[in-house]
Amino acid sequence: MGDYQIFFEWLMFAVRWLHVITAIAWIGSSFYFIALDLGLRKTPSLPPLAHGEEWQVHGGGFYHIQKYLVAPDFLPEHLTWFKWEAYWTWLSGFMLLVLVYYVGANLYLVDRTVLDVAAWQAIALSLASIVLGWVLYDNLCKSPIGQSTTGLMLVLFAILVAMSWGYTQIFTGRAALLHMGAFTATIMAANVAMIIIPNQRIVVADLKAGRVPDAKYGKIAKQRSLHNNYLTLPVIFFMLSSHYPLAFATQWNWIIASLIFLVGVVIRHYFNTRHARKGNPHWTWAAAVILFIVIAWLSSGPKLPGSAGEAVASRAAEPFLSAEHFAAASLTVQTRCAMCHTAEPAWEGVYEPPKNVILDNDIAIANHAKDIAIQAGYAHAMPPGNVSGITEEERALLVAWFREGSGQ
Questions:
Q1: Are 357 and 341 in contact (CB under 8 A)?
Q2: CB contact burial 155-188 (16+ within 10 A = b; e otherwise)
Q3: Angle separating helix axes 326-336 and 392-405, nearest 10 degrees
Q4: For the chain, what is the radius of gyration of the CA atoms?
Q5: Neighbours of 67 (CB within 10 A)
Q6: CB-CB neighbours of 21 under 10 Å
Q7: pLDDT tens, 42-70?
């Protein structure tokens, strides 16, 4: 039974690895095609129906690329479809959401000091919010507002700010920012699956049938692709945020999340303007730096309680509190770990509890039983470099306590 937890950790690692790999592939292709599209030029030598072309050099060779707004007058035998990068990025991300935040809902998703709900209720709220995001966004794009780039961006930003605040009223700070990433990434993946690829299939089908494809399908797909381009950088921030309490463990975390969207927009605006050969807007970097300084300042505000609310035991923590070896395990943790994992760390060079994990009281220790066993029992990751001198006997004790509490 003890091997099950080790297998589960490796499963999460494998899914995270897959998520990173597929995300690199999706982001890379997305950035490349937006840059390519913005850099196209009209030349006298363009064939009929071609919109623009670009010459590129890479890997020791030259590439001559031409774009057709609708379609060429013939359909090539082979078409490369860029879709599985997006699909697998979303699927692997959702798998991670399930493995980390749904399976570990009592610790990572539910904060009973924020909203005292059962794990299944928190999971239902999570799923409903993700679906709601796509429904709101898609209908917004299809409404008259969607015809105005500026109006659409303002309304969408207002929705994102509202969701940032709403998530912090339901979940832990860590889960709130992660859900902003899932909320946004779902919109991006659904753009590919529900709009971009279907529109491209319509164009291909019309061409095969000898009909002239309607240019509106390409226009709509391009709009959604551009939205994905601007949303990418904030999503990456949210996916990394779980490692940084200064981002998620402050009462202003929802404002930080909102400002991150603005940072992403101005950075992408710089690169998109450069790729379109429309200037070199250096002001965007100044704006990004100012926004980031504001974010850093906001992070110095009042902190949220330790993850999962260390003053309130989760439902899953009760067996660990009553386990035979709990008293000895608690003493070990408070002796070897609590100098860093406390509201005001005493260890030199540590100014915030790592990942906002508090381990200076019994309830907090019980809440984090699995993490303690994995990090300091099964593995020797904690304490770093064994700076507090935890012994092999103490590590074995932590494992024994975890097995008792989990019924192994």
A1: yes
A2: bbeebbbebbeebbebbbbbbbbbbbbbbbbbbb
A3: 130
A4: 25
A5: 15
A6: 14
A7: 888 788 778 888 888 888 888 888 887 76
